[in-house]
Amino acid sequence: MDTQKSYSLGELAEFLSAELKGSADFIVSGLSTLQEADASHISFLANPQYRKQLDSTQAGAVILNAQDAQQFVGNALIIDNPYLAFAKLSHLFDPKPKAVAGIHSTAVIAKSAQIAATASIAAGVVIEEGAVVGENTYIGPHSVIGARTVIGADGWLAPRVTLYHDVTIGDRVVIQSGAVIGGEGFGFAKEQGAWHKIAQIGGVTIGDDVEIGANTTIDRGALSDTLIGNGVKLDNQIQIAHNVQIGDHSAMAACVGISGSAKIGQHCMLAGGVGLVGHIELCDGVFVTGMTMVTHSITEPGAYSSGTAMQPAAEWKKNAVRFRQLDDMAKRIRSLEKQQAKAVDKD
Q1: CA within 20 to 30 Å of 244's CA: 14, 59, 94, 159, which one?
Q2: Do 157 and 139 form a contact (C-beta atoms < 8 A)?
Q3: Which sign does the torsion angle of CA 37, 42, 45, 51 carry?
Q4: Catalytic residue among 165, 242, 249, 279
Q5: Distances, alpha carbon 346 to alpha carbons 224, 243, 341, in Å
Q6: What is the pTM (predicted TM-score) of this model?
Q7: 218 to each of 153, 169, 236, 269, 305, how far by Cα in Å?
Q8: Is there a catalytic annotation at residue 242?
Q9: Which contacts of 274-279 are long-range, i.e. CB under 8 A and separated by 24 or more positions?
Q10: Which residues have CB under 8 Å from 272's CB, separation 6+?
Q11: Is the pLDDT of residue 3 over 60?
Q12: What is the distance between the alpha carbons of residues 200 and 202, in angstroms, rounded to a whole number?
């Protein structure tokens, strides 16, 4: 289906392979929430907490699962996963400008760089010696592509992305503004109180279908490459240190920090502000809740948390004092248990 401003509900049903309830000729010209939609919009219900808005919505059509559709009298597209359907439709109504193939006159491109004829290179871009830009890839204004860096097909780099030398990026990769890929890892050797820099001679290898958020940084490896698997999704302001490995289809929310040489499995999820110490491993299928500090390897799939939940400050201060007493309390409990065991033996 070609991108356009308006679609009939029948077209959208066919695009989603959804069951149509209502008028196939109804014209949809936008996508919105249940609360904000008007009669020209299609909306969706994915979270049960918003079900109460279904009765009052002004949306001309709504994407629903079969159960919710039974209670709705208006136009609807019925599908098992309304949120996934919303994700697919969002691309049809995306106002992001389409790139036009070609190289802007202000771009600075080394003679040895290879730029596909269908690529789009915006104003002020710098592409260094031996770099490669694949078919249909867009490089936004004032981005820098370092020497010998390779970018695959159908990529999209926002303005002011920086890729250092010897970075390899797969197909269909999206990188948002301010991201820095391939910066030097934090490696130093100490002698007599002074720090001596370790050259970071590895690179970064990123798979296909990866998305990297604004101001996220991925450091190059000290010896071998830092590795980001296929389908990985990284939010804004994430720090990934040198020689980290992230498995396919793992996702991380904003402000995650991963120390050097940590290995994260496939299909893992790290919520906002999670931290990992270096040289540990997370197996496949691990979910770590927000602000958790992971200090040792995780070998079993499942959800993991650390820290304490929010509470009034006065209560937290009292509990913080008790935290400091836990070791002493544990010793006293063990002593009491031993005394009790001796008393039982005498009886």
Answers
A1: 159
A2: yes
A3: positive
A4: 242
A5: 64, 60, 9
A6: 0.91
A7: 21, 12, 12, 18, 25
A8: yes
A9: 278/241
A10: 235, 253, 254, 255, 256, 290, 291
A11: no
A12: 6
Residues 6 or more apart whose Cβ sits within 8 Å of residue 84: none
Helix (H) or strand (E) holding 319: helix 313-346
Residue 5's pLDDT band, with cuts at 50, 70 and 90, is: confident
Higher pLDDT, 99 or 301: 301
Q: Average of pLDDT values for 254-267?
A: 98
Tell me the average pLDDT across 165-176. Answer: 98
Residue 346 dihedral angles phi and psi, to the nearest 5°: -65, -35
pLDDT at residue number 52: 94
Which H or E run contains 335? helix 313-346
How many residues in total does the chain contain?
Answer: 347
Closest to 217 (Cα-Cα) out of 244, 202, 238? 238
